Amino acid sequence: MSDPSSPAPAPLRVRIAILGAGNRGVGAYGAYLLRRPDLAQLVAIADPRTDRLHAAGELHGVSPERRYLSWEELLKRETELDAIIIATPDVMHLQPALAGIRHGVSILLEKPICPTEPEVRRLLATARRRGADITVAHVLRYTQFFTRIRELLNRGVIGQLQTVRHTEQVGYWHFAHSYVRGNWRRAEESSPMILAKACHDFDILQWLIGSPCVELNSYGNLGHFTSANAPEGSTERCDQGCAVERTCPYSAQRIYLEKLPPADRWPHNVVSLDTSPEGLALALHSGPYGRCVYHCDNDVADHQVVSMRFANGVDACMTVSGFTREITRTIHLMGSHGEIIGDFTRNEITVTDFRVDDVRTSQLSVHSEGLHGGGDEGLMADFIGRVQDRLRGGDPARASTSLEESVESHFMAFAAETSRLRGMAVRLHAARKKRSQIAPGSETSTIVEASG
Ligand SMILES: NC(=O)c1ccc[n+]([C@@H]2O[C@H](COP(=O)([O-])OP(=O)(O)OC[C@H]3O[C@@H](n4cnc5c(N)ncnc54)[C@H](O)[C@@H]3O)[C@@H](O)[C@H]2O)c1
Asked: How many A from CA of 1 to the centre of ligand 1?
């Protein structure tokens, strides 16, 4: 018990640098830092896009000499940091994370950890060897919605869990924005869609099920957003006199200028920093977000299903689809004497107890701050709190989304992509055994093996 006469620990402001001043770095984490100046201060920032760099620098009062054009330069010059947030593009996670480990700072690493399995293994091996403090941005674990479902399962409210159906509804315009026109459209340049979009879902499934996945099977492809499906009369860009522009659900003009009223936030601020209707129209005229969805250079799957078997006997299936109106995740957990049905965006959970035929729906309170159902907020609060503990000389518990805990979801995603591409079931148990024996330098062998 703490001594009531001893003074409370002095408030300690964590000195943070953000690497990558984009949608996540500034839009999500920077926004939290602005709301909680008592906990942390953004002292340095890096981004090669000078418009973003200086806009963020001004907003946070970062002095011009501490604004850098690359993460490399920032980490070379900044020696007095407590923590870094890595929010660079997917393919640029490994090197800054390794550099952060060498600097001995706490790291908040955006998902995906890295886009390939050998890179994830290399980071894991180095982090283990150096005892690094890395938290992965698996924000769903910090939401009230999934925390409540886990509590219900752990209390045995539906008996023994048998099977789970999980659907990630990406939303048709969101899919077009990110995976057809945007940054995640090509696997080579970012990640396979199942990793980029669904590593969160693999993570949450194994967290809820409470057991590792032992085998999975996956199907999916790029079924719609190809030139073969381009309507008669469509043009390369939506504003070039396309004959079907007024009725096409993916029309850039309709999405960014009509359906979603222009505002200074995602997705508009990804299209253009000038989010006035004129600024957006200009960006749509020449930038990537004005391209016809049937004439892009995208190659990632637009839908994928994965069926999974877990070590405790629970079976689950997940569908990820770009063809939905709502942007949400829905989950149905079926147990021996009850079921839980949840809708993430509505923040609604219905629990049925078969023994007494009782059906209860609870509407959880809606978070007003940040995105991801309060997950961004919860993640940052947890991360900064643990850095403060560490700086005070304490030994904070490992984050719920530590690197060690988070790699499992990525190995599931890599296995799902292998299964989809090779048309075979993939076993993960051998991989797990190998992982526990990871030694530096042995990071390149494959984790998956074909099943029977
Ligand atoms: N946790 C989540 O739910 C979630 C959601 C969306 C995106 N993400 C991930 O977050 C990361 C960032 O995504 P985003 O949407 O913010 O993308 P973004 O493109 O808006 O931001 C990335 C920024 O990194 C900058 N950058 C490029 N090279 C750099 C370098 N050498 N040094 C410093 N900065 C550099 C880019 O100029 C860009 O501004 C990605 O890995 C993405 O997959 C996670």
From this structure: 43
